[in-house]
Design brief:
Elements lengths: L3 E2 L7 H11 L8 H4 L12 E6 L2 E15 L2 E13 L8 H13 L5 E4 L4 H5 L4 E9 L11 E3 L6 H16 L4 E2 L5 H6 L4 E6 L5 E7 L9 E6 L2 H8 L4 E4 L10 E10 L2 H12 L3 E6 L2 E6 L2 E6 H8 L24
Parallel strand pairs: 4-5
Antiparallel strand pairs: 1-2, 2-3, 3-4, 3-8, 5-13, 6-12, 6-13, 7-9, 9-10, 10-11, 14-15, 15-16
């Protein structure tokens, strides 16, 4: 059975979405095509894969390639989603065929793979491991803050959109291991199920913004926030479910730490180059017999791939890789 893409079969787009929404029980008022719009951009349709039997789509899987940034160092990552198999065709290897194909064609091209799922044992078979932490503040049901105004990206002036881009760059992109937006802002704007709230000063400049909601997984959650006066904005927003980078894990004693994603190692040399660039440290990485052998500042050790990811992609005082450790922060608007 041949793997096909939506790029060559755009007549199948609605059926493709229907298979996903049926198997995920993704019902109105939610729309998978809207909530995960970056997957279905014209430029990404070649990465929306499916299997077909008797002219009927029986399984789907898709991915996007993005750049992540930390201290001006870039690393290419593959983010996988839209994995669904019609109920009557499950257990026949269709998921495995699509999933391993995505890994195989990207293994040498990217440093890391990301996906979001609670089926940890399933994906561990494919060397995906829980990695990174995201801080969740507050528990109150979301309601519109008085000092913020609801807005829509499509109605913003070019000046207002640029002010939001600057806030993201200054408060997120330049501080954390995260998605480099640049041209990806069009992807954000297309996810219209995420609600934008902005705060302006007396000069009519946007000085803070946040994104709340997206599909049923992120309902009532503020999953992206940036502002010029962080402490002032957090003093009010902290009562709501607000997601922040792991760096905020000591903010208060009532917060929760959530898993960021399931992560797989791609091309180890791409990771090596990335770490060298942001850490300015001497490091050598190699993959040998299911283990990662690393030499950091002339100290050579080895560990499992799972332990390497845990030590590298989580902020811990006890990490053997404390000198180079970082924690991925991926906004809910960018997750697949």
């Amino acid at each position: 059975m041949e793997i096909q893409s939506l790029y060559n079969r755009q007549d199948k787009l609605n059926e493709y979405i229907n298979v996903i929404e049926t198997e995920f029980n993704y019902t109105n008022p939610y729309s998978y095509k809207v909530d995960f719009a970056p997957l279905f951009n014209q430029s990404n349709l070649q990465n929306c894969l499916f299997l077909e039997e008797e002219n009927k789509i029986i399984a789907t899987a898709a991915f996007v390639i993005k750049d992540m940034i930390y201290k001006n160092a870039l690393i290419k990552v593959c983010m996988i989603g839209a994995m669904a198999t019609r109920n009557e065709f499950q257990g026949k290897g269709h998921f495995k065929k699509l999933f391993t194909h995505i890994i195989d064609i990207n293994q040498d091209k990217v440093g890391l793979f990301f996906l979001w799922s609670d089926q940890h044992s399933l994906y561990e078979k494919y060397e995906f491991y829980p990695s990174g932490k995201t801080v969740e503040l507050g528990s109150n049901e979301f309601n519109e803050p008085e000092n913020y105004k609801k807005a829509e990206f499509r109605n913003l002036s070019s000046k207002e959109l640029n002010e939001i881009k600057i806030l993201y760059s200054k408060n997120i992109e330049q501080k954390y291991f995260t998605i480099q937006r640049n041209s990806n802002w069009e992807d954000v704007i297309k996810v219209t199920s995420a609600h934008l709230y902005i705060k302006k000063n007396k000069q009519n400049e946007i000085i803070a913004y946040f994104l709340c909601h997206k599909g049923f997984d992120l309902s009532n959650i503020i999953h992206e926030f940036a502002g010029n006066n962080l402490s002032e904005e957090l003093s009010y927003l902290k009562k709501f479910k607000l997601w922040l980078p792991e760096n905020f894990k000591n903010y208060n004693s009532t917060l929760h730490l959530n898993l960021t994603a399931l992560v797989r190692i791609g091309n180890i040399k791409i990771i090596e180059t990335f770490i060298k660039q942001y850490s300015k440290r001497s490091i050598s990485l190699n993959s040998q017999n299911e283990e990662i052998v690393y030499e950091l500042d002339e100290i050579k050790e080895s560990c499992s791939k799972k332990d390497f990811l845990n030590n590298w992609l989580e902020l811990s005082e006890n990490s053997k890789l404390k000198e180079i450790q970082i924690s991925p922060y991926i906004s809910g608007i960018d997750s697949i």
